[in-house]
Specification:
Structural class: alpha+beta
Shape: globular
Largest sheet: 4 strands, antiparallel
Order of helices and strands: HEEHHEEH
Strand content: 5-15%
Length: about 160
């Protein structure tokens, strides 16, 4: 039982670190190889690579907040929430494995963007998708991780109606 619990916790930490690693490596490559604001068409005009620094949250939310408020809302509060989530999933032994995967993606992606905010004062975003009238904001791999985790949580909550957490 103890070995199974240890393996489970190591698996959770591995998933969190894998999400952080993919995010940080991709951002470092973009910072080194893509000129800021460059517009590179990867798949016609549907999948674009660029290099934009976002000093706010998603889609620039909070960009114009006073510095103290920005630090509290975009750094301190997310650190606390992500640490509590990580602690909770590491503590629990009876969680649905897909629920754990979903939370690991949310936590890993959240930490990836927090690393940028704390280390650089902004988050490097670099992908954009355009399909007809559908157009995303510019995003990064941490955003993909968080979105994947949230969609999985939504799917699981609809499928199981009540999940233990």
């Amino acid at each position: 039982m103890r070995n199974k619990l240890l393996a489970s916790r190591l698996g959770i930490l591995f998933l969190v670190l894998l999400n952080i690693g993919c995010d940080q490596i991709s951002k470092e490559v973009v910072r080194e190889k893509v000129v800021p604001r460059e517009y590179i068409q990867l798949v016609d005009d549907h999948f674009i690579l660029t290099n934009v620094e976002n000093t706010g949250a998603m889609l620039g939310f909070g960009d114009n907040f006073p510095p103290f408020i920005k630090v509290v809302l975009l750094q301190v509060l997310p650190v606390l929430v992500l640490l509590i989530l990580l602690f909770r999933i590491l503590q629990r032994t009876n969680l649905n494995k897909w629920l754990v995967v979903a939370f690991a993606f949310v936590i890993g992606g959240g930490i990836g963007n927090l690393i940028d905010r704390i280390a650089y004062g902004s988050v490097t975003d670099f992908f954009q998708i355009k399909l007809g009238i559908f157009r995303t904001g510019i995003f990064n791999m941490a955003d993909v991780s968080v979105t994947t985790g949230v969609l999985l949580l939504l799917f699981l909550s609809l499928k199981h109606k009540k999940l233990a957490f």
